[in-house]
Design brief:
Shape: elongated
CATH superfamily of the largest domain: GAF domain
Strand order of the largest sheet: 5-4-3-8-7-6
Strand content: 15-25%
Keywords: DNA-binding, Transcription, Transcription regulation
Protein name: IclR family transcriptional regulator
Structural class: alpha+beta
Helix content: 40-55%
Organism: Streptomyces pseudovenezuelae
InterPro entries: GAF-like_dom_sf (IPR029016), HTH_MetabolicPath_Reg (IPR050707), Tscrpt_reg_IclR_C (IPR014757), Tscrpt_reg_IclR_N (IPR005471), WH-like_DNA-bd_sf (IPR036388), WH_DNA-bd_sf (IPR036390)
CATH class of the largest domain: Alpha Beta
Pfam families: HTH_IclR, IclR_C
Largest sheet: 6 strands, antiparallel
Number of helices: 11
Order of helices and strands: HHHHEEHHEEEHHHEEEHH
């Protein structure tokens, strides 16, 4: 038999059932490690996957070479590595694209400015905005940062976090931007409890004089926290609060990856803005 013939016969074995089984076993290892931040030992992986420890050792060694797994301890535990995280990030849709249809629906319905703000590294940043059609309108600057404690966007996002997480994100001193700004932490935490109950946050001229806003929080499958907000000149806001709230709830329900307001913890009907 010639060398070429030998190579021709070996190729199907490399790409046949054997390769498929190897891929399946590697996926089983990755699934076993999902969510295990402290990692697992080879024995634990063998127990969870039902694979021989020798097979686990070969798979883990190969995956470590590729950066898919990394050592989690000096005792042989391994965890998901940065390479796999990068692959996941590459295929991750931006929350902006997920919520854009809801924003367009809101803008068309209310004729007011609609913005999207995302919580990134402890800061709230406007990542998208559609300007209102009125001559007198609120303007949101894409790329700008917003305070968390006195904006509707910020309070909507904070309400999705625990009180301990809120405390870590807030500055030592809550700056007073207008006479209506809440600067006492206890008062802010009380309002956040109401936002958790209703799923709706208000800014009643607390961040900018003459501008009010309503916002709801959204979260994608990757845990990114964001808020859809409708800022409105105060002269046109009062008396329209419930129309804006209803439109926000309706718009978010269009986005299948974001749970409707009624699924938020303790959500219920919101008949009026919180008392200042």
């Amino acid at each position: 038999m010639t060398p070429d013939a030998t190579h021709t016969e070996a190729a199907p074995q490399d790409g046949g059932d054997g390769s498929i089984k190897i891929i399946g076993r590697a996926v089983a290892v990755l699934r076993a490690l999902a969510g295990e931040r402290e990692g697992l030992s080879l024995s634990q992986l063998a127990e969870r996957t039902g694979l021989p420890r020798s097979t686990i050792h070969r798979l883990v060694s190969a995956l470590e070479v590729e950066g898919v797994l990394v050592a989690a301890s000096a005792t042989g535990r391994v965890r998901i590595g940065p390479e796999l995280v990068r692959w996941a990030e590459a295929g991750r849709p931006e929350i902006r694209s997920l919520l854009r249809p809801a924003m367009e629906h809101l803008a068309q319905t209310l004729k007011e400015t609609v913005d999207l703000a995302v919580l990134e590294s402890g800061r709230l940043r406007i990542t998208d905005s559609i300007e209102g059609r009125h001559t007198l309108r609120a303007v949101s600057v894409v790329g700008s940062s917003l305070p968390l404690h006195c904006t509707a966007n910020g309070k909507a996002v904070l309400a999705k976090l625990s009180d301990a997480e809120v405390a870590r994100l807030l500055p030592a001193r809550l700056a007073r931007l207008t006479p209506a700004t809440i600067t006492r932490r206890a008062a802010l935490l009380e309002e956040l409890r109401e936002v958790r109950r209703t799923g709706v946050a208000f800014d009643l001229e607390e961040s900018t004089p003459g501008v009010c806003a309503v916002a709801i929080a959204a979260q994608d499958a990757y845990g990114t926290l964001a808020a859809l907000s409708v800022p409105v000149p105060a002269i046109r806001f009062h008396g329209r609060e419930q129309d804006i709230v209803a439109s926000l709830k309706s718009a978010r329900e269009q986005v299948s990856t974001v749970p409707p307001v009624d699924t938020l913890p303790g959500s219920g009907a919101h008949d009026a803005p919180p008392a200042s």
